[in-house]
Structure formats: C-alpha cells, structure tokens
Known about the structure:
The protein has about 170 residues and is of the alpha/beta class. It is built from 7 helices and 7 strands. It has a 5-stranded parallel beta sheet with strand order 3-4-2-5-6, with helices on both faces. It has a two-stranded parallel ribbon with strand order 1-7. The radius of gyration is 15 Å and the shape is globular. The N and C termini lie close together (about 10 Å). The mean pLDDT is about 90.
Amino acid sequence: MDLRIPDPCLVVLVGTSGSGKSTLARRHFLPTEIVSSDACRSLVADDARAHDADGDAFRLVHLLVATRLRRGRTTVVDATNVQRRSRRTLLAIAGRYERPAVAVVLDLPAALCEERDRNRGDETVGARVVRAQRRMLDRGLSTLDAEGFAQVVVLRTPAEVEALTRR
C-alpha cells in the first residue's frame, strides 16, 4: 500500500500501545518530522512513562506541532491518539495553518499489541491499559472519516504495516 501524503501536512498516528506507531514513524519519516509524546514526557519529566506529566508534555507536543506546521514542515504525531478530543486538538492546529491532516491507524489485533507491550521491559504500560486504549480505538474508528482528516489509512495486519511505502 502506498501512503501518499501532501507536503507539508500533519500525520496523526492512531493506535494502542504496542501497535507499532513509533516503528512506523521511524521507518517512513525523518527524526525531525516526528513529535513523540513519550519524548516530550522525557523532556519535561525525565521519564517517558511519567503520565503525571501528560499536561505539560502535550502542551509541548501541541507547541511543536503548531510551530512546524506554521513553518510549512510535515509533522508526524507519535502518540496513541485513540481519544477523539486528542485528534480534534491536532486537527484544529492543522486547520489554523491550513495544512491537511492524514490519519494513519494501526488497527492491529489486541493480543499482538499486548504481547508487544509485555516485551518492552521497563517501558510496558500493561495489558489493562492496552485493552482500554483498544476500546477507545474501536469507538473512534467509525467516526474517523467524518472528523476532518483529508485521508484516513487503516492498517489491520502486521503485513499491511510492513508493506506500507511512503510516496
């Protein structure tokens, strides 16, 4: 599958922990194009898993996204983005700078995501969190097309993720 995205644009990765969002981002985008919620948590709290720092971390995510889009730079948001309000905020930023937004959804089987999460060592979020994220993702999948994305790409298997190419 070809991922054809306008340049510049906002790419919003959507998927549970363990779905492969960070791996996909690193494979298809420059390090400077990726704005990671984990990296922003690390910047503000010295710990990528410090969820008590989410408010500060996401203010930084939104500032970086806005700055890059204002400057005409393609920007990829590497966060779960399974909640509609998270996507709505990102879409509003893209709209403010008249940049199209593309959603890339990693809708992989929950059992696979839980297994990958277990294999992360110290960076695990736990099966309970992955299942909760999965429920939010399932609720949001049917509305993604109506949320205002210029394009929605849904990848449902590891093979589809591996076959993805950026044009």
